[in-house]
Specification:
Blueprint lengths: L1 E6 L4 H10 L5 E7 L8 H4 L16 H4 L4 E4 L6 H10 L3 E4 L9 H8 L6 H6 L1 E2 L2 H9 L3 E3 L3 H15 L5 E12 L14 H4 L4 E2 L7 H13 L9 E6 L6 E9 L1 H5 L2 H8 L6 E3 L17 E6 L5 E8 L3 H16 L15
Parallel strand pairs: 1-2, 1-3, 3-4, 4-6, 5-6, 7-9, 11-12
Antiparallel strand pairs: 7-10, 8-9, 10-13, 12-13
């Protein structure tokens, strides 16, 4: 049984981490921090956890965190990297759900997150935590940068096309039309997130540029081994009036080779042994509600006309897009069954 700490336990991803880890057969959460809720019982704030935990929030105490085998940071960008060096010195592993260890390009990190990196040498040795595509490196890593939610849908949606057969598509043609529920913005007071601003409404945001774009580009370059060909892909996120759920519709131009290929079989074979990626039968339409609360990503393919491919990719942004994927990474790091604590089935209706 490993000892776990969660820094930032009052946000949506923090409490989702706790929900998943409370059912984990090999992990016990011993430290749950909150600067503002020190001393408060977690089930007082989140009554769904009544009867499942007696944990209380505590202020961040680095000495207590150093007693843990692994610490999750469910915090704003810039927090994890301030504490990672000290935790590593105590042989405590780190999984960051923010962006501190996602981008290897420091110039892009500073541009999009408005801060200098506090530990660039540690960043070089960290692993990008998309389990299905980076499993071997994750197993041996001490620091994990959990992927962003949108980039997860995009990478898993495109990986079969670039990992094994990069000549099937025209990379510069890719358009990513992505939608997320409001929980993706976090649990904070904000005028743009209140009910009357979002109910009966649907809007694009970050159209001029979004911080997940450079993450998508860097990740696709690593998947494909091609540099400089993804710089002009288009990525536009949208906010939809639901709590959980994310759907990315990806439009791609095919080459002659790609047009002749059996892409359905390519995807099915690529993900044949992946517990958490479901390639649906041809003609299917994956729904966000089918993965609500589950660490599952579902994919469907369409060829509406010659040399055109549409990839549909859905997930729960708080689970496979955040907390569930973080637990999946923890399982790999400690040699547990990859699905430990993650066997939940999606809630429908």
């Amino acid at each position: 049984m490993i000892s776990v700490g969660i820094v930032g336990g009052t946000g949506y991803t923090g409490v989702e981490l706790l929900r998943l880890l409370l059912r984990h057969p090999n992990a016990q959460v011993n430290v749950l921090t909150s600067r503002t809720e020190d001393g408060r019982r977690v089930d007082d704030m989140f009554p769904s956890l009544r009867g499942h935990t007696d944990l209380k929030y505590s202020d961040l105490n680095i000495d207590e965190l150093k007693k843990c085998d692994v610490v999750f940071f469910a915090t704003p960008h810039g927090v994890a990297m301030k504490h990672t060096e000290e935790l590593l010195a105590a042989n405590t592993k780190v999984i960051d759900l923010a962006a501190d260890f996602r981008l290897q390009d420091l110039e892009q990190f500073e541009k999009w997150y408005g801060m200098q990196h506090a530990c660039p040498e540690i960043l070089k040795d960290s692993a990008y935590g998309l389990s299905e595509l980076n499993r071997d490196k994750i197993k041996n890593a001490k620091v994990i940068g959990n992927p962003g939610c949108y980039p997860t849908t995009v990478q898993l949606g495109l990986a079969p096309l670039f990992k094994q057969a990069a000549t099937l598509v025209k990379p510069e043609s890719i358009i990513i039309d992505a939608k997320s529920g409001v929980s993706g913005a976090g649990r904070k007071a904000s005028l743009g997130m209140i009910y009357s601003e979002n109910a009966d409404n649907f809007k694009a945001y970050g159209v001029a540029g979004h911080r997940h774009h450079p993450e998508i580009v860097e990740a696709l370059e690593n998947i494909s081994g091609q540099k400089g060909v993804f710089d002009h892909i288009l990525f536009v996120p949208h906010l939809v009036p639901m709590i959980r759920g994310m759907l990315s519709t990806i439009y791609i131009d095919l080459t002659d080779e790609g047009d002749a290929a059996d892409l359905q079989s390519l995807y099915e074979q690529f993900y044949a042994n992946e517990t958490f990626v479901d390639v649906m039968p041809a003609g299917s339409s994956p729904e966000t509600r089918s993965v609500r609360g589950a660490n599952q990503l579902r994919i469907a393919l369409y060829k509406p006309q010659p040399k055109k491919l549409i990839v549909l990719s859905v997930q729960d942004n708080l689970v496979k897009g955040a907390a569930g994927q973080a637990v999946q990474n923890m399982n790999l790091m400690f040699g547990f069954a990859e699905d430990a604590g993650l066997q939940g089935i999606g809630l429908l209706p």
